Amino acid sequence: MPEAGHMQIGEVAEQTGLSLRTIRYYGEVGLVEPSARSRGGFRLYTQEDVDRLNLIKRMKPLDFSLDETRDLLEALDRLNAAETEQSEREALSERLDAFEAAIAARCEALRDQLAMAEEFAGRLREQRERSNAAT
Fold it and tell me: Are 8 and 46 in contact (CB under 8 A)?
């Protein structure tokens, strides 16, 4: 039985929509390591770990690399750390601004791709309708 406030990997997978394999992989590469282990050695996760996995999941469709993802997570961790000094907080805030700009650019590119795909689907539909009307 998981400790209070902890979830086993199966529950985390259900909450995030990620596979067990993906969650384990993110642990192996150091993006989200389990917060604890049960007596039996099972990985145990907190809600904070789930939130971190969901953030990573949102970065994936925007084609952020593992290194970029790690960089963002480290910046967020340092920004949220009580011991982080103001000068470092300012630098971290600038890094987050850069990520925000990159996200906006990638979203715009995806909107352009979607518009092109929708236009293509519309043309195909029109062509099929003309072809059906001719028969």
Answer: no
Quick one: average pLDDT of 79-89?
94
**Residue count (the chain):** 135
Helices 47-59 and 9-16: angle between axes, nearest 10 degrees: 40
| Closest listed residue to residue 26, CA positions, set 12, 41, 38 | 12
Residue 2, pLDDT score: 53
Matching residue, tokens 């750390």: 81
Q: Residue range 27-49: average pLDDT?
A: 91
CB burial of residue 79 (10 Å; 0-12, 13-18, 19+): middle
H-type alpha helices, the chain: 9-16, 20-28, 47-59, 66-80, 86-134
Using CA atoms, how far apart are residues 132 and 53, in angstroms rounded to an integer?
48
Q: How confident is the model at residue 34 (pLDDT cuts 50, 70, 90)?
A: confident
Q: Are strands 43-45 and 7-8 parallel, antiparallel or unpaired?
A: antiparallel
d(C-alpha 59, C-alpha 10), whole Å:
22
Q: Name the one residue in this structure whose structure tokens are 């059906």.
A: 132
